[in-house]
Write a structure and sequence with these properties.
The protein is an alpha+beta fold. It is built from eleven helices and nine strands.
Length: 295
Amino acid sequence: MYHTWMRYFTPSPTHHKLGLVCLGVGLQYGALPTVGPRTLDHHVAVVISSGSGWYRGPDGRRLTVTGPALIWLIPGIPHHYGPDPVAGWDESFVDFTGPATTTYTELGYIEPDRPVVPLADTAAARAAVGRIARAARRGNPLLEVETGAAVHELLVALRRARADVGADGDPVLQALARDAFQPLTVAEHASRHGMTPAELRTAVRRGAGCSPKDYLLGIRLGRAKELLAATELPVAAVARRVGYDDPAYFSRLFTRRVGMAPVRFREQQGRAVHGGWSHQIPDPEHPPTIATRPT
């Protein structure tokens, strides 16, 4: 026996312009029927919370699926899968499409070459699926936008839940972030980790979806923006604090990546406050109370 609940949607051409739209959602468990062989024209993320089964791709190899796990169904790629015929499994699935899938694939969030991905847990992914399911109520005027936004959340949750990434993230990326403001070359960063530059590039590409240079640059420019907005430090001092000894090079790089010069950014975004900005991230569910002065 098994239980199945599902809804399917048909977003308008205008909603497709958002980049990512949800086409359907389902929650089911038990000794479910085998799916396929078939080929789809869109993506599906099949999240297995518990139980076990199998997956077979176009190469004919049969892969074991043991929850928690993720099965990627990629458009144009034949697939065939199913749970253990006796014990079954606990499954949720989300069908989606849109031009943003190309970028998510490039960044490593969607993995066509790895159809079965072990997960550390499925709690966050199931929460995103739950938001889609709640938005799927009949007559919801925000259906397409709510479900599309939840697909973005689902992709992030699945990326974070991969079993090959620790709870605190990739240690290589953590170390790069810690040393990002030191004036080191990519080769020097690699040497610090006992890696070749090629090995570091592979690790960062897999973990962050970009090159080490772009990963470090994103951190450096983010910090530079904070210093420009929150302090009155000269541009040259800001450049040195984020790892650039040549302020002219820093200004050219900032202008090319941000779209405006550092001085112009400060004019637009300046938020200098006494004592500087807080480094403590506020809890959005328990915001601080602003005391009112007596009149």
